[in-house]
Amino acid sequence: MPPAATETVASDAANSTAPAPYLNTMPGSDFNWQVTLAKKVVAITGANRGIGLGIAEVCLANSAKMVYSFDLMEPGEDFFTLQKQYPNFRFVQTDVTTEESVEKAINQVVEETGRIDGLVANAGMTKHQPALKFERPELEKLFNLNVFGAYFCAQIAARKFIELGIKGSIVMTSSMTSYRPNRAAPSAPYGATKAAVRNMCHTLAMEWSHHGIRVNSISPGFVRTAMTYYVEKSPDWDIKMQYYGGMPRLADPRELGGAYVYLLSDASSYTTGIDIPIAGIVGAW
Ligand SMILES: NC(=O)c1ccc[n+]([C@@H]2O[C@H](COP(=O)([O-])OP(=O)(O)OC[C@H]3O[C@@H](n4cnc5c(N)ncnc54)[C@H](O)[C@@H]3O)[C@@H](O)[C@H]2O)c1
């Protein structure tokens, strides 16, 4: 089937080697300098629980028009509790490791709301074990979700922003393990995936700045989610925390949300290509 006219324009713009016309992100003279997501439609991958759900809650508390969770698993109790408070929180079943699935989800958002302003590439996984034990399939699984998933989510969202002429914002969830090892739970491949995520944001930000698209990342430290299951199993955790220094506790996922809101909002119109580490200075990272 031949592509629709809009698809042709989008792919021409994305594939062209000619410099794109500069879409300036500078706010107009009537800009409301309040940090807000009013009128913004945001999609967050892996927002049915954990950090993604925390980001969703803070986006909704800061007036986002619609927030979509693109998640592989069916929504659970946590999702529905938040949805009860904010009926403008929706779920689209999505596998971020499949481009067709991501494209379908983004198209559904645009069909339902007429737009998409922000994409948070947050879905990710880890595997904790000594480096000497890792086998290739385990690395492939980690890179497929954490790196390829984030990359294609960003690419597909950017194409849609360009097609719609929207000055979109992309935020990726990296990790403090992109800078330093996690002494509590070793995973060399995971740290490598998160370093890739943080790194790709610089180049994507540079390449897409002419389209008015900003790309940034956030690097959380220890956050209380299913991913930090090992904390509960560690009877000497309090001592470890004292040893690590900094704030002797894990973060609530919502404590990261303000940074995502800022990066998704027009208040950060000149902020692109950066990483914000949010780690309570634990481990003097
Ligand atoms: N928890 C931490 O301490 C911590 C620290 C630094 C970075 N991170 C990063 O934060 C992000 C979220 O982690 P979390 O702790 O909330 O984990 P989590 O396991 O609680 O949540 C991950 C979510 O992603 C979804 N998901 C998994 N595979 C998917 C796929 N193929 N397509 C769509 N969704 C998929 C899961 O269903 C789940 O809802 C991850 O990228 C993780 O690496 C977490």
Automatic annotation (TrEMBL):
Entry keyword set: NADP, Oxidoreductase
Keyword Oxidoreductase: yes
One Gene Ontology molecular-function label: oxidoreductase activity, acting on NAD(P)H, oxygen as acceptor
UniProt cross-references to InterPro entries, sorted A to Z: NAD(P)-bd_dom_sf, SDR_fam
Keyword presence, NADP: yes
Similarity comment: family membership: Belongs to the short-chain dehydrogenases/reductases (SDR) family.
Protein name, as recorded: Uncharacterized protein
Organism, scientific name: Penicillium atrosanguineum
